[in-house]
C-alpha cells in the first residue's frame, strides 16, 4: 500500500514536544517555512508523525476558526483555478491573506494536479499574501479531505483570513468540501450538455451561491440564459434555506467580472448565518464529521498494518481460493485485530 509520504518531509525528523511548541509559535508568527513544515506534518500518514501532528493541532486550535472558509466546485475546465487566481488577487490587494487548498481524489493516481494548481494560478502563486497548497494524496477521500481540513486550521492559525478550497466534481468530493467550509460556491458553464448547465443535481442542492462562469462579452447572452435556467431549477427545488435564497451570479475569472458581487454574496451569506447561529452550528456539525472520518481512516490503517496484518493476509488468500466467505473472513480478521488491540 502506498503510504503517501509527502515529499520533503525527512524521515526521522521527529518533532519533540519542545520543537512542536516552537513550530506552533512560528506558525502563529506566520513564518512561511514553518507553515510548510506544519502542513506537511498534519498531512503525513506516517504513524510516528501522528502524535506530533495531533499535539500541534491542539496548540494551534485556539487561534484557528477566524477565516472565511469558501468551497469552490465545478466540472473540469469550468474555470475554477482561473477564477480563484483573480478573485484571490483582488482580495490580497484589499488587504486579505488568502490561502488556496485543493481536494482532488484523483491526484493519487495522476499526481498531475499538483503542477496544474500552481501554474494555473500564476498571479496568486507569486503573491506574498497568498499560500497555495495542492491536494494531499493517498488514502480514502475522507482521509484526504480530513487532512486538507487540518491544513486549513493551520493556515487560519497563521493568520490567513480567507481560505478557498477547490475541488473538481468527482465522486463525493463536493460533499467532503461542503462539509469543511462556511459557504459553498458552484461554478457552472453555460450550455454544457445534459446536466443542468453543467451542474449535477446533488451540487445544486449543496450550493449556497452559483456562478455562471466565463460570462464575458461574446458569451453574455448564453450566460444569461443559463442563469435563468438555473434560477428556475432552484425555484423548483425550493432550495431556499433558512431565509437564504441561492443567488445565481454571472462571473468571469479571465475578465475579472462579477467577482466583487461574489465577495458581497459570500459576506451576506455568512452574515445571515452568523446572525442566526447557523454558522456556529454548521462548524460544530462539521467537527463531528471530521472526527468520524479521521477515526475511520486511522482504524482502517491500523487494522491493515497492525498486529493482525499477517492474519489478514492469510485470510485474503483463503477468500481468493474460495475456502471461506468474505464476511466470515472479515469477522475473523476483526476479532483477531480487536483481540490484539485489547490484549
Ligand atoms: N472565456 C473564459 N475562459 C476561461 C475563464 N476562466 C478560465 N477559462 C479557460 O478555461 C480553461 C480551464 O480553466 P481552469 O481555470 O484551469 O479551470 P478549472 O475548473 O480549474 O479546471 P480543472 O482544475 O482542470 O478542473 C482554461 O483554458 C482557461 O483559460 C473565463 O472566465 N472566461
Ligand atoms: Mg483547477
Written description of the protein model:
This protein has 343 residues and is of the alpha/beta class. It has 3 domains: 7-60, Single alpha-helices involved in coiled-coils or other helix-helix interfaces, CATH 1.20.5.170; 64-276, Rossmann fold; 289-342, no CATH class. It is 54% helix and 11% strand. The chain has helices at residues 17-28, 32-43, 47-60, 80-93, 107-110, 113-119, 141-157, 173-178, 201-206, 220-237, 259-276, 278-305, 309-320, 326-342, and strands at residues 68-74, 98-103, 130-133, 162-168, 183-188, 209-212, 248-250. The protein has a 7-stranded parallel sheet, sandwiched between helices. Strand 5 (183-188), helix 9 (201-206) and strand 6 (209-212) form a beta-alpha-beta unit. Helix 2 (32-43) runs antiparallel to helix 7 (141-157) and helix 13 (309-320) runs antiparallel to helix 14 (326-342). It is globular and about 65 Å long. Mean pLDDT is 87; it is low at 1-13. The structure holds guanosine-5'-triphosphate and magnesium ion.
Percent helix: 40-55%
Q: Under the CATH scheme, which architecture of the largest domain would be assigned? A: 3-Layer(aba) Sandwich
Derived from helix and strand composition plus strand pairing, the structural class reads: alpha/beta
Mean pLDDT: 87
**DSSP summary, beta strand count:** 7
List the topology elements.
Blueprint: H1 17-28, H2 32-43, H3 47-60, E1 68-74, H4 80-93, E2 98-103, H5 107-110, H6 113-119, E3 130-133, H7 141-157, E4 162-168, H8 173-178, E5 183-188, H9 201-206, E6 209-212, H10 220-237, E7 248-250, H11 259-276, H12 278-305, H13 309-320, H14 326-342
Parallel strand pairs: 1-4, 1-5, 2-3, 2-4, 5-6, 6-7
The structure holds guanosine-5'-triphosphate (GTP) and magnesium ion (MG).
